[in-house]
TrEMBL record, chain A:
PROSITE patterns: PX. Belongs to the sorting nexin family. This is Sorting nexin-4-like isoform X2. Pfam families: PX (PF00787). The gene is LOC114862611. Coiled coil: none annotated. GO terms for biological process: positive regulation of autophagosome assembly; protein transport. PANTHER family: SORTING NEXIN-4. The keyword Nucleotide-binding does not apply. Residues 15-142 form the PX domain. GO terms for molecular function: phosphatidylinositol-3-phosphate binding. InterPro entries: AH/BAR_dom_sf, PX_dom, PX_dom_sf, PX_SNX4, SNX4, SNX4_BAR.
TrEMBL record, chain B:
Pfam families: PX. One of its GO terms (molecular function) is phosphatidylinositol binding. Residues 1-67 are annotated as: Disordered. This is Sorting nexin-30. It comes from Betta splendens. The gene is snx30.
Amino acid sequence: MVEQGSILLRRMEICVAEAEKRSGKNAVNMQETFTVYLIETRPMDAVTEGQNPAPDSLWRRYSEFELLRNYLIVTYPYIVVPPLPEKRAEFVWHKLSADNMDPDFVERRRIGLENFLLRVASHPVLSNDKILCHFLTEEHGWKEAVCETGFHAKSDSRLRALSATFRVRNPDKRFMEMKHYSDELQSHTSQLLRARARVADRLYGVYKVHGNYGRVFSEWSAVEKEMGDGLQSGGHHMDAYAASIDDILEEEEHYADQLKEYLSYAEALRAVCRKHELNQFELEMASHDLISKKQQREELATGIVRTFSFKGMTNKIFGQEAPEQREARLKLLEELIAEGEESVKEKTVECEEHVEQAWVDMQRFKEQKDKDLREALISYAVMQISMCKKGIQVWSNAKECFLKM
Amino acid sequence: MSVGAARGLASSGQKPIAEILHPLSAAEEPLSPGPDVSVTGSASVGGEKEAGLTNGTPVETSSPASASSLFNRLQLDDDLEADARDPYAASETRDLFVTVDDPKKHVSTMETYITYRVSTKTTRIEFDLPEYCVRRRYQDFDWLRIKLEDSQPTHLIPPLPEKFVMKGVVDRFSEEFVETRMKALDKFLKRVADHPVLSFNTHLNAFLSAKDLNKRQGLALLSKVGESVKHVAGGYKLRARPAEFCAMGEYLDTFSQKLGTIDRIAQRILKEQSEHLTELREYGAVYSSWAAVEDELRRPLEGVAGCVTTCCGAVEELSDSMSQDFLPVLREYVLYIESMKNVLRKRDQSQAEYEGRLEAAILRKQEDRAPIPLEVEKCQDKVECFNADLKADWERWQSNKRQDFKQLLTGMADKNISYYEKSQAAWESLITLLQDKQTEDKTSETN
């Protein structure tokens, strides 16, 4: 699922090896149970040389992963940041546990967290981040280090801006298309997850009802002479058939997890597009502000009022102001205009850089998505084939028994 | 003697060997075509079965050395191949073949109904011609069954498919309904034709050969009323039912109950499958609509949508065959069991009558030294014949039932296997498609 050969991953082998339950006091000093995950790392050159040193390891809980991701989102707004596995079990078909402490859920989350780390560590840009490296290698002091980056301040305003509605005049068309696509991706993956869960529910029902055959065949065989053995053993196979669905559906959860990853990825993609909109908006605002200030300066300098302004009106009503006042205002205006020009320059650069870098990463993301999802579909097909083979086996066994009736 | 002009009654003494075959050979009825039936096995099977040979006295084991059983074994060996071909083949050389097919709708001013072609091929001298082809409707089959019940009350008459269908709920003229009904009528007629006693019934002969059955129907209704009154009236109470008939009754009760449960399970499965199908269809549609917004992923997603659609078709086929082939057979056996219980009741009645008359006669004998009257002896004969016929038919029924259910359950297994095979094939071809594309991409990348 994850490309090899990016910087961090070349240097070290990373895995999330285990999960454990812990108890402790939380932020509001209440006792709580939570799960921690063991992150193991080993220098890659040691591995390739055939040595087998003990890995370095540390424990992290889910909320620390969340913190890391938030830091990355804020610090690299032009990157489609890999998502974390879901916080709570969603799209659950009814027999599957929605309990966060359920061992199957914890196991799938362990895999999801490992996947997240591998993706981040193999990303051409993200893998170089110091905070990431710290996260993987030093258990203590990491939270403080993250806070010191000051990303919190940026994150609040950023998140606020992402949710705000504003009208942009000239966004990059490609980004608007990409944003539209991210909406489509989100909508289709969530529809698919819902539909799949419903199908799983129904399939469960079909298999389980067959278990009733096992019981009634057994009861019936008790009053039969020659037919009895064949009936009874056939019934046992019906029981086996009914039981087989549990493993089949548990395995299918891996497919659901892959879909869920891209459901979350869609959101990350959207965020990059929105960041562009925000940049563009701020640039447009700054440009507009600069233009209006320049106009004001022109009016003050020439005395010609081109546009309606209150100052102009009051001048007409109350008379012109004194020349010293005018000088003072002109000077202020010049300063503001200079600042404004700087601001526009900065924002233009910021916008252009963001567009350039984001476009590169969005292309990378597209290729990754196409590859990953195609592989996911292939592995889903493989699962279906395995399910069919099991079905054929069980019914063939049952048929053998029925033939002996 | 027993009521009705039946020939080939094994229980009544002086008959040629060929016709005494019946009770034992019924017990050795073909079990499974193929390697399971062994030549040496059949003799011991015959030895285990009960068979009433003479005077209604149950014979626990028939000595293998007796002439008739020797004849049986030889006969059975010859007929193994015939049995392998047709589960309904009787052990005697078949000389009566019947088929029900070719349904056609008839529209008249009074009513609309379906007729079926009934074809007969026979070498029996009871028939004037070697071949017949007539058209009959359900009413005619019903008439035949009533006549058989009346004229052979000591025998188990196979059931007909249900007579009444709720208008508006079931379409009497839909292809599936007609097909299912026709298969059941065919089975009914074949079972009658294979029965060593029933197949010689004159009403069957008329049914198979007469141009026009209508005239007899009025008479049939009258006679049905008459004879059933004869049986019910009498009001004798049964002292002690022989153990074997008790066992039969108990077995029928349990079996009927189990069949009811199986019917309910099958219906539940059908319901779950139908709901599964609904969700599957929607599931496939989501893949299609996603495919529309993708470029590289479009073909893979459409491929998955196609597979899901194929699976939907396979589910539908499976469900259809369950409701058309599986459920009707279960229901038919429930009807069969009902009519068998009826026959058991009639047997009880005739035993009760005999015991009652005998008691009365003994009392009179004690009083005025009169000999046992002829009616009492006739009653005794009647009971013994009834018991023998019933036992013979019971064995035949058991073995037919075994064959039918073996076929039914292996059929169900086959349908399920076929469903999974179709699904598997669809997914395998998708993988081939997707993996070809992958290698295509890789080679274009390296180029």
